[in-house]
Amino acid sequence: MKAKHQRLTLALLGVAAVIAAGVLALSALKDQASFFYAPGDVKKDGLPLGRFVRLGGMVADKSIVKLPDGVSIRFVVTDGVATVPVLFKGIAPDLFREKSGVVAEGEFQRDGSFTASNLLAKHDEKYMPPEIAGKMHETKTLKE
Amino acid sequence: MIAEAGLAALWLAAALALMQLAIAAIGVRRVMAEPDFQTELSGHLLAAVRPVAIVQGVLALLAMVLLITVFVRTDMSVLLVAENSHSEKPLLYKFAGAWGNHEGSMLLWVTILGVAGAAVAIFERSLARATLIATLGAQAMIALGFYAFLLFSSNPFTRLDPAPVDGQGLNPLLQDPGLAFHPPTLYIGYVGISVAFSFAVGALVTRDVGPAFARAMRPWVLGAWIFLTLGITAGSYWAYYELGWGGWWFWDPVENASLMPWLAATALLHSVTVLATRDGLRAWTIMLAVVAFSMSMIGTFLVRSGILTSVHAFAVDPERGSFILALLAIYIGGALLLFAARVGTVRAGNTFDLVSREGALVANNLLLSVILGIVLIGTLYPIIAAGFGTQLSVGPPFFNKAAGPVALLLVAIMAAGPLLRWRRDEAKALVARMAIPIAATVVALAGFLIFAPGIDLLPLLGLALAAGLAAASVAPLWGRNLRRTPLFTYGMVISHLGIAVSLAGMASDSAFTQATLVAARVGEPQRVGPYSVTLDGIAPVIGPNWSALEAHLSARRGSGAAIQLRPQARFFSNPVTSTSESAIATMLDGQLYTVIGQPDGAGRWQLRLWWKPFVTLIWAGGALIALGGVLSLLGRWLRERRARGREAEA
Description:
The complex is a heterodimer. Chain A contains three helices and seven strands, in the order αβαββββββα. By secondary structure, chain A is of the alpha+beta class. Chain A has two domains: 1-33; 36-139, CATH 2.40.50.140. In chain A, helix 2 (39-45) links the parallel strand 1 (34-37) and strand 2 (53-59). In chain B, the strands form two sheets. In chain B, strands 3, 4, 5, 6, 7 and 8 form a six-stranded antiparallel sheet that branches. The mean pLDDT of chain B is 87. The chains are: A alpha+beta, B alpha+beta. Chains A and B meet through helix 1, strand 1 and helix 3 of A and helix 12, strand 1, helix 13, strand 2 and strand 8 of B.
């Protein structure tokens, strides 16, 4: 093979690899990117059923209920526009508490409730997930 | 006074960097005009630029030492200390806490950059003089940008008046011995890549791309890569035991920010070898050096701009983000322009057949680039989407699905590569040499299918390929005189073996992990994997700056002796935070991982238990990969020293 041809082959291979990566990535992204919802979005856009999504907002006051099995809890997420009841089985993060921001990862159920497989709470007192801050700003319920 | 001295050292270092850049820029022009690079003039210029680079490194180091001093003394009149430290904090975290914040960590970055530049000035002897001058110039240019960033938008030495009585403390998640080790290691890796980048820029400027240049660049790439490997491995283990989620890799953007430079550096490491031994892949190697540095800049941007929310993002300040983004655009854009302008003058290197060592290395480079592309898309997509008002996150399902298959293909090629001859080889001969690894893969596959049915496809393939790769990676040693085999061959063998070991650990973790979540009463045994775990009681504990509830667990396997585990729920007062400290028992065949949650008010405690067979192989593999790098580095150095000795005799 001549040097010139070799360069061309390598360049073509490189381009092919990049395209393959792009196609692979984008097709996977379409299924796998998990979208962020606030309770108000669900009211507006309908339930995103059968998808892994994030639900974010504030944990409503006096809404955390411990279930008898000792490892599950129910609570309500609100953004000031609407509320969503959430069921979570697991150890809640240390900073998960009422009247505080939370992001729940999981799926919506047909009845409009949300089953969370993971909860993300803020890392420290000052921290607020930007998604929540953004959404809160939109609905203008953040009193600070 | 100490803070002011630190600031003065920074300004002086910045001035020296400017001087270094000026000497290099003017000097290289003059030297290039002469017929030969190794003239007297280049010697004089080098004699001028070397000390400047060294003193600049020393000054940056001095600034870092002074910052550590104010942290250790807990000087509350320094804003950074007041915001991030506390007098009751243990000494180790006062020390390491100096870089547990935005400004301090950027100073650490710059310090390592300065020291790396000094190291190049002191130790680099094999590079052509003109190229070395240009390299030091490029290094000074990178440093200047970061000095500007520190001095104008992230000054770590700002005073606070009046000084508060006490500070706000350090994020408890960072209060771990890992803080002393993980950031410096990773930074040495990140910044080491900047040296490779400066070499590439230097060689482009002086049109010096060739095997000699590659041999000079290789140890620096290798060194950076070793530190990156160690930093990622340490970071992964830290996240594993500190976060209490039982996971070792979360595809978190900050993790990706360290993985991307590693992928690029790994590709660079292999292509620079092709350039050094076979004089091939010239332009590609230069391009990879630019890409690798871009990735470490993007990593710095992602982590330090506050665009991401994580324990790594200390400050959310749009001005800083824009500053780093501007630096990124200038360096990468500039390097790409230079590349575009000069790539035509880079002569085509040697050619080779598709079935050859070079061919396998090209495939390695392409696949690594594909993985890099996938990780990059997955990491940046949410940020770009957020710019268009869509909020979404890309998590493990995406990365595993998209990058997993490519990684397994890469492993297969990795097994074959070292068994191929340079330039040209026969596919048939390769199959013969691969007989044992292929057999190992098939046997492992069949074994797992029969004895452990129901494993997901990806972990199953991972386990089988790990067996094959382990066999293939030691294959280059078969039939060789082991005592006369060069050290760098051992390095390659051990690094590749490390990948196999790590892969086996990852696959085993995802295939065989057993987890349980229970509300446990005292005395009630809980089963996880082969263990029966009993909660014996809960007791309060007091630490230096925290108090905790500690669970006393005893774990028994069959009729064996009980192992004691003590997971804690800790409460910090400065700042007010609670964390959970997992307790892990390491056995030869895996780890028992325990976390304590909340009480339910009726005498039960939440317990989360995992049995993770062979999970430790993940980090043991990482250590092996780095060890292989060290052996390679040592081997090349010994060989070069011997060669120089022979030259001196002749």
